[in-house]
């Protein structure tokens, strides 16, 4: 597994539409493994392939207490409710903002073996799925912020225990 460089705005790969994966082969398995390693290294809860410069429809997620999950060619097939949440993004470091997200979503896609999967999610998992799937369409959370006063600069966390 290789830690990949996370792309930051204004990198144009973040604004493009990702292509569907047509064949799940060793290169896609390596991409997924690298994405999981990169996500864990950066303490993210999700990562989309465009964030590491690969314009393919692949996302990985890691919710606390759960194993990492990869979804290929994901699509939201149902969403309901609305709530306001604070979001940040590895590709727009140093900022957070208030955005509206669904309270629940259903996503379908393929797992790393090519088997169709369907995920029903609420709360944090629903938020992460919407956030990461937005990346596949060139949309970032900052595009959902209704006004500039809803975006604010955050100070980087510092800790003696960081490696």
**The CATH topology is what?**
Peptide Deformylase
State the major sheet.
5 strands, antiparallel
Q: Helix-strand pattern, N to C?
A: HEEEEEEEHE
In which order are the strands of the major sheet placed?
Answer: 1-2-3-6-7
Work out the helix count: 2
Tell the overall outline.
globular
Helix content: 10-25%
Count of individual beta strands: 8
Looking at this structure, what is the CATH superfamily? Peptide deformylase
Q: Beta fraction of the residues?
A: 25-35%
List keywords for this structure.
163 residues; alpha+beta; Peptide Deformylase; 5-stranded antiparallel beta sheet; globular; 3-stranded antiparallel beta sheet; disordered C terminus
Detailed description of the structure:
It contains two helices and eight strands, in the order H-E-E-E-E-E-E-E-H-E. By secondary structure, the chain is an alpha+beta fold. It has a single domain (12-153), classed as Alpha-Beta Complex (Peptide Deformylase), CATH 3.90.45. The chain has a five-stranded antiparallel sheet. A three-stranded antiparallel sheet has the order 4-5-8. The two termini are 18 Å apart. Residues 158-163 have low confidence and may be disordered.
